[in-house]
Structures are given as structure tokens and as C-alpha cells.
Amino acid sequence: MENLFRIDGLVYRVMLKIWQLLLLNFLILMASLPLITIGAAQTAGFTVTTHMITKGETQILATFVTSFKKNFKQSTLLWGILLLSSSILIINWNYLIQFQQWGSWVTIGLGIVTLLVLNLFQYAFFYIARFDDSFKSTIRNLLKLPIRYPVRSMLLMIAGGLPLGVMTLSPYTFVFGLYMSCFLGISLVHFFRSYLLLSFFEKVVERGGEKDK
């Protein structure tokens, strides 16, 4: 029994992991407060969680700040593009819904573009955190991923969207989700998605030879 509470015991390791995720959650929230920096905060969050998984990272604050500074420009620019693209898509979908303009080709085209943008959202900041690439190469590779791996991309999107899906089940789960996001929810989702994306990108790297950080 006392082995459980030793420094290398199960309880200590679990509590340490919870503390790390609590700290990371706080850092992501604080770094996201000026909304323009959300992209850089997401990239830094993925840097920390991937290092936690692959390297047993314990220097959460130092790793987060280093990644935030290093990837700020590229992450912020990509975040701005994604935000603008999403705004345009929302306007177009609202137009179709309100005026019942459900022309087949228009709807199909808009649906395809929406899926591409959603895939950019799910890959973008993890990709920047994980790979050394120019901005142009990053965009090109991100656009290729859902085309080359449509089934895996869709499964990853569904798995990554599960927490949001659960939040929409009822007002109670929505409030609980918001409450959890203030303490542990965001970093926990990052940690979960990092496991999935690491497994996915291992296969991509084997085929494409991207340069890992």
C-alpha cells in the first residue's frame, strides 16, 4: 500500500499529471485572452502535451513560453486566416438557410470547403508545434492531409469533436463543460487529441518524411 504514495508511485504520478494539466489549462486561457493570440496559445499547448507524452516533460511553463514566442508569428497568421475563412463560411451558410438557396452544386461546394477548413483547424496548430516548415509549406501540407487521408481525417474530427458534442446534449452538460474548461477541460482535450494526432502523424512522417521538431 505504501508503494502507492511513494515519489515514483501511482498516486504521485497521477497527481503530478493533474497538476501539470491544471497549470497548462491556466496558461492556455491566459495566453488566449487577447483573442488574436489564440493560435499561438493553441500551438504552445500542443507543444507541451506532445512533450509530456513523448519526453515526459515536466517544465510546463518554460516549454509553453518558449513555444509561444517561437511560433507566435506563424500561428497568429494562420489563426487569422482560419478566423476569416470561418466567418465567410458562416455568412454563406446563413444565407443558404435563410433564403433556402439549396442549389446542389453550391451546397456541395460549400460543404467541401467547410470540411477543408475544419480539417485545417484540427491539424494546423499541432502541425506547427510538431514540424519545422515554412508558412507556405505548412499550408500546402495541411491542405493535402484531408485529401490523402479522408477517412482517418474524418475519424479524427469526430473523436476530437466528442467533448463539444457532449456539451451540446443538455444545458447541464454545457455549463459543466464551461466550468471544466476553466480548470482542466482545455488541457485535457489537448492531451487526448495529442495522443490521436501523434499516432496519425507517425504514419504521415513515414510516408512523407516531414522534419520533426
UniProtKB/TrEMBL annotation:
InterPro entries tied to this protein: DUF624
Organism per entry: Enterococcus saccharolyticus subsp. saccharolyticus ATCC 43076
UniProt-recorded name of the protein: Integral membrane protein
Sequence intervals crossing the membrane: 18-41, 77-96, 102-128, 172-192
Presence of the UniProt keyword Membrane in the record: yes
Pfam families: DUF624
Keywords: Membrane, Transmembrane, Transmembrane helix
